[in-house]
Design goal:
This protein is α+β, with helices and mostly antiparallel strands and about 160 residues long. The protein folds into 2 domains: about 80 residues, no CATH class; about 70 residues, no CATH class. The strands form 3 sheets. It has a 3-stranded antiparallel beta sheet with strand order 1-2-3. It starts with a strand and ends in a 16-residue tail after the last strand.
Amino acid sequence: MVFCDKQARAEKVWTGSTNWTVTGLCTQTNNGILIDDATIAKAYKNRWDALMKVKAAYPKSLAVAGSKPAVNSLNGKAIRAWNVPCLKYADLKEAKRYIDDAEQGVIYLMFNPGKGDGKKKAKALIQDILALDRNKIFIEGILNQDPGGKKDPIIQLTH
């Protein structure tokens, strides 16, 4: 959701996995983040406008545009926001670099994280996270399901 001023200039964006239906908002587990930044909000609005323009089509131009993140800084820290799909998994590759470079910890929130074998299908980000040394950095997160399922679990679920 992009919040705009009276002149339709983007000011803030609410993003995440929120399902904006009555049952989605009231009965599903959702996550979201409010980004109070006009540059990032404008990138989201531009994406919305592009989607509206092509209606039900999905031309390659959308993937090309989604392959470059919106970039700005907030409180002196760089922020980057991706619009998917991205060509060649650019967004996921960047996330993997952040995971691999983590020095203090990784905190994650994932919905249907998937699983790969590292050969035919790239490993999923949750597998990259679980490969880190818990004795050296803090790792904590939330998943809605174990991507390995009951027969081949890869995480320990706690309540």
